[in-house]
């Protein structure tokens, strides 16, 4: 397994698990003791983390922009020996955008030809659990809880399999939220879940999304199309080092005509 998708309720310990993994890995690299009876940890040359949420007001960057900048920095510098820790990536935007970005990043890490970096990806997007069905090196785990008499007990254990609930309303209740708000939130949640079973996110064919993946990026020259082959040949025969701006524009116009034919 290369990538672990970690789901589970708020306050269950997902972020703590990520920080703990980073610290233990760092201790192991310097030859220190680690808090375990035994540990098998490979060589790691870089530890990348995207944990927490904060804006950068001095340069006018929103929380989501900071998140995307840091994620881009990670993805552009990964190596085969990297350890990557993402905590709730994509939560700073709309649900559909967030799921799409999170899915695409996990897919990128899985399909990267040169770096199968080990990754822990903690998320509340339970739709990502579907990725295990179509990506062979992705495994689902969850930080388990037990629900007793409408109360949530955090077990602090990492178990195999994905989670389907975040128990956010339970956490709001624990924080002392007014009872009327908690009750109303439960009513709205039940209504949304009912609607989603009919035609919402949960009902969408996410397996098909995984099956239609293109890896990192498939070249369109792989297609068996004579026009694309002609365009490929035109580009291959270009001497870009001796091409003037005018020649480049003329060549681009020629290729455009070929594509239209």
UniProtKB/TrEMBL annotation:
InterPro entries: DNA_mismatch_repair_MutS_C, MutS, P-loop_NTPase
Cellular component per GO, a single term: cytosol
Keywords: ATP-binding, DNA-binding, Nucleotide-binding
A GO term, aspect molecular function: ATP-dependent DNA damage sensor activity
Keyword Cell membrane: no
GO biological process, one term: mismatch repair
Protein name: DNA mismatch repair proteins mutS family domain-containing protein
Source organism phylogeny: unclassified sequences, metagenomes, organismal metagenomes
The DNA mismatch repair proteins mutS family domain, residue ranges: 82-98
Native species: termite gut metagenome
Signal peptide span: none
């Amino acid at each position: 397994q290369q990538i672990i998708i970690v789901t589970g309720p708020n306050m269950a310990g997902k972020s703590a698990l990520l920080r703990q993994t980073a610290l233990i890995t760092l201790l192991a690299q310097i030859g220190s003791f680690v808090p375990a009876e035994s540990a098998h940890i490979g060589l790691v040359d870089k530890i990348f983390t995207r944990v927490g949420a904060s804006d950068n007001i001095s340069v006018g960057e929103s929380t989501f922009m900071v998140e995307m900048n840091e994620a881009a920095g990670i993805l552009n510098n990964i190596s085969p020996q990297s350890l990557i820790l993402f905590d709730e990536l994509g939560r700073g935007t709309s649900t559909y955008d967030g799921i799409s970005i999170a899915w695409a990043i996990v897919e990128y890490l899985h399909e990267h030809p040169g770096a199968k970096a080990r990754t822990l990806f903690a998320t509340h997007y339970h739709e990502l659990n579907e990725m295990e069905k179509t990506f062979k090196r992705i495994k689902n785990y969850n930080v388990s809880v037990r629900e007793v008499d409408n109360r949530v007990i955090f077990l602090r254990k990492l178990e195999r399999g994905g989670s389907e609930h975040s128990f956010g309303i339970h956490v709001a209740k624990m924080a002392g939220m007014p009872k009327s708000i908690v009750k109303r939130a439960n009513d709205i949640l039940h209504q949304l879940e009912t609607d989603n079973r009919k035609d919402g996110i949960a009902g969408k064919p996410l397996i098909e999304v995984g099956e239609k993946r293109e890896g990192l990026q498939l070249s369109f020259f792989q297609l068996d199309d004579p026009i694309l082959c002609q365009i490929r040949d035109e580009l291959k025969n270009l001497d870009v080092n001796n091409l003037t701006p005018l020649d480049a524009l003329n060549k681009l116009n020629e290729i455009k005509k070929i594509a239209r034919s």
